[in-house]
């Protein structure tokens, strides 16, 4: 009889511990939402939300729930893809069989996309310098200016292929890549702007 009572008591204690632990786990999960959901939610503020999620979701564990880290990751992805497009353009500029006007447009693109990479790198470094204080707005203004300039470089590249006379495989191949880069960079700028608008600052 005593043994039975002790057994029942142990089972009750174990049940209480289990329920308590489960409740605590539930509270923890509720108070610390999934980082992936944070990325998806933040991407709704961008112009190309599907591309935003596709580009950044793999970095959710690094981004966690930080607007600053989200913006920095978006810029890093933009740098990587813009640089990749620049390498593609360099190879294209040496391809045979292009018209003189096409080759000149490709060479101009190599230069402007190169400028875009440099401006994005500047933006990334500047964003890394941001912090609380009176200099925050100044740093963010620089970041926004350089990312906007990078977007202008992408548009300038595409402008060189305007008109039906430039239609063909060269134009279509370059347009697809540069448009992708422009969309990724546009998303990065939107996330930078969001961070700038929500980040707390101290008055001087």
Automatic annotation (TrEMBL):
GO molecular function terms noted in the UniProt entry: pectinesterase inhibitor activity
Keyword Plastid: no
Record has Zinc as a keyword: no
Signal peptide limits: 1-23
InterPro entries xref list: Invertase/methylesterase_inhib, Pectinesterase_inhib_dom, PME_Inhibitor
Pectinesterase inhibitor domain span: 34-191
Short name of one Pfam family: PMEI
Keywords: Signal
Family the entry assigns: Belongs to the PMEI family.
Protein name: Pectinesterase inhibitor domain-containing protein
